[in-house]
Design brief:
Length: about 280
């Protein structure tokens, strides 16, 4: 078996991306049949199984046999129990985050409720996997750890959209709108043009806004602003970045406007929010 196990969390980053990969693993021609359940480490691992000669993956995760075709992806939560069951070669790779990032990853909608799911090997997923392998062979060069963080995050999102499960039944209008909302959460820090996003999902400007109002009480613009404010609050509670830099990280249009909107949402200044968060961690 050819494998690689690297700890990358301590590598220097020039950009404070909130979802920094801590460990990466690769496996080629992997076989295994553990007789007993194993307990996962205290982190969150995304294990992408790209190919096997087996008809299905029958690993046991938290007491449930998965029985899924390849390719598939397993989401191993901190302290989850699993048993590897494969008697034929399997190619896979994995990347792991600290447990502290899990709530935010769930909030932005890139972690499913299932422990394991199959996915379609789309061109974008294939491109990101190729990029993952390209980056890890140049991992210790300047700027590469940041690109790895971003590539893995993009892959998380693409694997959600490439899942085979949502396509088994026709999508409802509500499902389309919620898919768009998940896309907006993933891309909140970018310059977003709502009409372009709606068109990508087959909706006109009028149709999109009519359907959006049926699902959400706030406008798409307010939804994006709220997401940016929530991301800023996360930065304040987990990093020491100055507020001026956080404003840029979440793509807010101006510091003055940011302070006003943040106070309206949280009832305090960003500095007070950071102090409150730090005080909570010390108690």
């Amino acid at each position: 078996m050819n494998s690689m196990n690297l700890t990358v969390g301590k590598l220097k980053r020039g950009i404070q991306f909130p979802f920094q990969v801590q460990k990466i693993f690769t496996f080629s021609d992997y076989r295994g049949n553990t007789p007993t359940l194993l307990q996962h480490r205290n982190d969150f691992e995304v294990s992408v199984r790209t190919y096997s000669e087996s008809e299905a993956c029958r690993d046991i995760i938290n007491g449930e046999e998965q029985n899924l075709p390849f390719p598939n992806v397993a989401y191993k939560l901190p302290s989850s129990m699993f048993r590897i069951r494969n008697d034929k070669p399997r190619e896979a790779f994995a990347f792991a985050y600290s447990a502290e990032t899990l709530p935010e990853l769930k909030r932005i909608g890139v972690i499913p409720s299932e422990s394991c799911r199959s996915f379609v090997m789309t061109e974008e997923v294939k491109r990101l996997i190729t990029e993952f392998y390209r980056l890890i062979v140049d991992l210790y060069s300047p700027g590469i750890p940041e690109l790895l963080d971003w590539t893995c995050f993009r892959l998380l999102g693409e694997l959600m959209f490439a899942s085979t499960q949502p396509f088994d039944a026709p999508k409802t209008r509500e499902a389309v709108i919620r898919n768009i909302s998940a896309w907006l959460r993933m891309h909140y820090a970018e310059n977003i043009f709502i009409d372009d996003v709606a068109a990508a999902y087959g909706l006109s400007h009028t149709h999109f806004f009519r359907e959006w109002r049926k699902v959400f009480d706030v406008s798409p613009l307010q939804y994006i602003l709220d997401t940016r404010l929530e991301a800023a609050a996360w930065y304040l509670s987990t990093t020491t970045l100055p507020v001026s830099q956080i404003v840029g990280e979440v793509n807010f249009s101006g510091t003055t406007k940011f302070y006003r909107r943040f106070f309206h949402k949280y009832g305090m200044t960003p500095e007070a929010y950071r102090k409150m968060s730090m005080d909570r961690k010390r108690t």
